[in-house]
Structures are given as C-alpha cells and as structure tokens.
Amino acid sequence: MFNSLNAQPVDKIMALMQMYREDPRDNKIDLGVGVYKNAQGVTPVMRAVKAAEKVLWDIESTKSYTGLAGDPAYSNALSGLVLGDAKDNTRLSMAAQPGGTGAIHQAVELIKMANPGATIWLSAPTWPNHPSIIKHLGMTMAEYRYFDNATRAVDFDGMIEDLKGVKAGDAVLLHGCCHNPTGANLNFEQWKEVAALLEAKGAIPFIDIAYQGFGDGLEEDVAGVRLIAQAVPEVMIAASCSKNFGIYRERTGLLMTLSANADQAGITQQNLTHLNRQNFSFPPDHGARLVTMILEDDGLKADWMAELEEVRLGMLSLRQQLADELRSRTNSDRFGFIAEHRGMFSRLGATPEQVEKMRVDYGIYMVGDSRLNIAGLNKDTVPVLAEAIVAAGV
Ligand code: LMR
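That is the input. Now the predicted structure with (2S)-2-hydroxybutanedioic acid docked in place:
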C-alpha cells in the first residue's frame, strides 16, 4: 500500500531550521522560524508560566479527560483576551485546539462541511502552512494582493480591488496582527473598509491571530479583530498561545466562531465539538490550563503582561537599531520600513540569491522569500546583519 504514496514537498521553514542546526559555524544567526529568542538566544519559559506550573503541580488532582471542546474556563478566558468588549456570548461557539495550526485546520474543515464550494482567499503572501492545509483538505483557494514589494507596505488598493471578487459564502483569511511573513499591517481605517466590504459581500472573515501582544500592544493588536466581530454576522477566529505565552510545544490554540444568532451558534458548537471528536477527541490541556490560571489570576496576569511588554519593546528597539544601522550604511531611508513593520517578522525584499549569499557568507538564516525574524537578533548581531544586507546588494 505505502508504495503508492507520493513524496511530500518539504515545508520551507522546517527545512531552514534543519539547515541551521547542521551549520557548524559558531557565529551563525537564526532569523528563520518564528520563535521568540531573548538577547542570549534563548526561548525562555515565561515567569508567569513557570509560576502557574508550580501551582498546578500542587493542585492538579487528576489527568482524566476534559470536555471534547476543552475546558470552558479556558475558552472563556482566551476569548475574553482576544475579543474583550466585542465578545458576544450568544453568538460565540468555541473549541480548544492543538495550537494555532490545529485551529486553522479545524476552521477549514468547518468551511468544508458548511460550504464545500467556498473559495478561501489568502493574502499574497501568507504563512505557507495556510495554502498547504487548504490544499490538503481539498478546498479551493484564491489570492488577494496584500504586500507591495516596492514600498514594503500594504497594497491596500490592490487588496480591496481583489476582495471585490469574493462571493457570498467565501472565506477571507486575514492576519489579526503582525502579518506573517511581511510585518506590514492594516491600520484601523483599513480594517473598517475590509469589514464593510466583507459584510456587504456576505463573505466570512477568517482571522488568524497568533501574535497578540507582539505588535502595538495586547489591546491595540486586536482592534481590527474586535471591529470585525462586531460588524460582520459570521466570523471565524483561530487563536494561538504559542508565541504570546511562549508555550510553543504545549500546542495551545482555540477556534472561535461567531454565528448570526444564538440558535445557529448552538448548531455551530455541535459541529466544532464533532470535528474535535473525529480528529483527536480531546484537545491538549496542559497549556490551556496554564493560560487559564494566568488570565484568571490578577498577579500572574500582571506579570505575564509585563514580560510580554518587555518582549514587544525589545523587538521594537531591535527594529529601530537595524533601520538606523542601515540608514547610516546606505545613506538612505530605504530600509525605514523595518521600523514601521510590527511583530516578529519583516520581509526585506531581497532576492532568493541575495538571501542565499547572506547565508553562505555570513551564516545568516532567513526564509527564502527574505522574511526575517527580528527576535532572532540581538544588539551585537544587528550590525552583522546590516553589513550582510549591504554586501548582498539588497
Ligand atoms: C513561523 O511562521 O515560522 C511559525 O509560525 C512557525 C511555523 O510553524 O511555521
């Protein structure tokens, strides 16, 4: 049987991680996979997570199953963090998922169950796993223009023009904040325009929010998500706690849907629970429990927010340092966009050959489309990267 299997394409981010591991150079710099690293190159366990784990070790009395949709306390706590005042419990259905990827996968399955003929629209470019999951599930996809390679900012006119082509019942995947891979984000006025257009078209916003707190702040980063949740009757939101709680390997995600009314929300909930049962029965609980404990305890929450803010400000300062360094080396402002982008990533606009030259000559690893992970830098490696960018002729 297995001899009928075809070889699978390698995920380019995973392949890059492997190449980096195999590079023997001591001075290599990993700007590849989207994992936060501090100035010492360590991905730390956050203080509040450690504290919650200690308490959990003491108080946890069973590891028996939770519910098929996970622990409702977790869904309530995390949906509160994402949706805030825009949380409408009457329309909300939720199911815990194994990470943000799990939530995206489940959302695509839900679209397939509800409307197999739907087209799922993706920003050009987007996180490579988006099209890969959609293709794997046999759904149709289309692209809308998003990033302007010349300005390294959002091509908003192109985006709106392309989204005018969506049909009722199509889903439009939007990055809630900190666009991956470009770092270029919609402003609030642009979110309003997108919300109005999708509402008028009868299309469903499908929001991937994996970096809340990494851009402009915990509240600021979800302003667009909340606006959409209030403006559009049916919405899907895939949230991840991997990055903002630093619990990558615990696989902690949540799929939220807003239905048009409470009756429909009940049926949607049954479908979300059914999908969990078919795919893995019960979602992982350890990370979800830690997130719940942190969000429900004022002290832990304050400490988590303070550490997250340190992470965010650290990335902003590295962005500024890199933009300044490039300004002085090139005597121009053409890399000013690095300080304007938000989140972990920026798309530099280098060619694959230039990216390869930086890897070979300097041991700098970034994704082939020239996405670089700002959090892979520290103040000593910023000048090395700036030198490499100039030497590669970017
Ligand atoms: C990334 O974009 O690098 C991260 O989201 C990690 C991943 O799974 O690709």
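The CA atoms of residues 138 and 231 lie 30 Å apart.
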